[in-house]
Design brief:
single chain; 2 strands; mainly alpha; Arc Repressor Mutant, subunit A
Amino acid sequence: MDFRSRLSSSPDILLGKPVIKNTRVPVGLILERLGDGMSIEEILEATPGIEREDILACISYSSQVISRESLLAS
């Protein structure tokens, strides 16, 4: 999925953090909810104005970002 059609970033909205287009819903919030165990359906119910494809775009975006990083050894 090409997340660029669903996500945007602007310095005027949430200090440039990536959000779902035409909303102020940050990608990080969606990923946090998924990480907390919420289902896509639960997120959709709790977050009016977004669609399933928006959530999938958040996952795709995070996958691309993380593929460029390495885990630091502790």
